[in-house]
Amino acid sequence: MSRIALLLSLFCMGMTIGCASQAGPSPFNRGYIASLKTMQPNLVSPPVEPIRDGGRASDYLALGLTFYNGNQKLEAVEAFNKALATGDLNNQGRALAYWHLFLSYRDENASSHGADALSSFVTVASLLMQQAQDGVDGEDLLEHVKVFIERFDLRDRLLLAEVTLEAIWAHKDSQYGRTPTRPVLLPGARAQRLFLHVFKPCAAATQESANVRFSRAAYMIHDRSVDEATVECPDESSAKSFYFSAK
Question: Helix crossing, 73-85 with 91-107: angle to 10°?
Fold first, then answer.
């Protein structure tokens, strides 16, 4: 059974949604980050019926994934929005829809809409993580949530989404993350290195060969510890500094 057939077979009336994925290398190297950006590679899909009103949330969501994997991103956006508009998706379905809605908007260069979708994904994904941690739901429902978290690599996608939102803001605000008094709110070397990968402070051709040095607790600002990352781009004479702190 193909991966897309397997995925679509997971949809049912109760919207217990999983997403098959292969185990990958430890995040976050380049290949692993790239694997998180799409749930599966773009596939050549057979023609699908046009999107009609009055459908079920599960049908719209499955249709959106089919459009997405067929590289029909505008049609995918319409289908995902219709699925969300029904109000009938559970949190797993909403996470799946918002993630692919973000990717579809990004691929169509609609960054502002993509940021909204990504922010919504962060909210829903955080709820799922909290739901699994609290363990207050019924055993069957909790097991479905845990399976979804594992198969959709939700922890890593959530981190990538949070980092991407911070990077989007840093691109809009030239002071954000560039001074110790306005640090990027991401704790830990893993998230901070991922931010630099997403933000891309060096030219594309030299990004991967940039020299990055971290100074932990380089500053204390209003009782907040601030880390400093110094980035030396091969084609630039002066280094760039970025500052990070816990939320």
Answer: 150
| Whole-number Cα distances in Å, 48 to 12, 45, 71, 99, 223 | 19, 8, 13, 22, 57
As a whole number of Å, the CA-based R_g of the chain is 20
> What single letter denotes the amino acid at residue 234?
P
Show the tokens assigned to 32: 């692993």
Cα gap 167→35, rounded to integer Å = 19
* Residue bearing tokens 């997971």: 10
| For residue 193, pLDDT beyond 50 | yes
Euclidean distance between the first and the last CA atom of the chain, given in angstroms as a whole number = 44
Q: How many CA atoms lie within 13 A of 31 on its CB side?
A: 5
Q: Give the residue extent of every domain in the chain.
A: 3-167, 178-245
Q: Dump pLDDT digits (tens) for 157-177.
A: 999 999 999 999 999 999 999
Q: How many CA atoms lie within 13 A of 58 on its CB side?
A: 13
Work out the percent of the chain whose per-residue pLDDT is above 70: 77
| pTM > 0.70: yes or no | yes
Distance CA 196, CA 208 (A): 10
